[in-house]
Amino acid sequence: MNRDTAEIDKFAALAHQWWDENGELRTLHQLNPLRLAWIAQQADGLADKTVLDIGCGGGILAESMAKASAASVLGIDLADKSIKVAKLHALEAGIKNLRYQSIAAEELAAQQPASFDVVTCMEMLEHVPDPASIVQAAAAALKPGGTAFFSTINRNAKAWALAIVAAEYVLGLVPKGTHHYDKLVRPSELAAWARAAGLDLIASSGVEYNPLTRRVRLSANTDVNYMLAFSKPA
Ligand code: SAH
Known about the structure:
By secondary structure, this protein is an alpha/beta fold. It is about 40% helix and about 25% strand.
């Protein structure tokens, strides 16, 4: 089974914090409008599309995609607690075009192959034992002509210094122990897994945090945090 229980428990323990914009997961809230806009732009809009969000957590991105468009969004994660939080938040917000399920990506892709116009998988690959298998599942769940999005953290000295040492221990942007250096993913590795799954790279973006202004912005620099977009040939 492609899951690291310790990793899933780590996020489940934070489940009550998912929607606390000033809590331990605040950086995801800060980043969300930027990644939402990038995803919508690369996917040629989300309106009326079917969207799968793999490793959705409490639904920060999934709910925003459902709110921003008439897209039909399904969020999946293996942390039951997070799925419960996500469901409750969507219910309270009265959002109808959003569903959540506790299921593995591979299983969902086997049940619903070639079913989604857009698949997103953000900040999750660096937490699973076999990330290539998640990329493969994302590709399988995607309709031909669809677009897949992944975000993760690069693996190099600068990424170690900024995304682990600075973000976890100096600035406290994310909880200590969130990321393990050897689990980080180079863009070339992610692109190779996607290529092996039949996907074509269409765009990339860096995600940069400025510690002075405490702002996140998108840039061309993929040295540390980054996102890649792929299309599945029609
Ligand atoms: N994608 C969300 C949450 C990122 S946090 C966002 O960007 O806002 C990482 C998420 O991956 C957590 O919710 C965790 O429970 C989930 N996760 C970790 N391993 C997983 C696995 N093997 N299968 C599904 N989800 C997993």
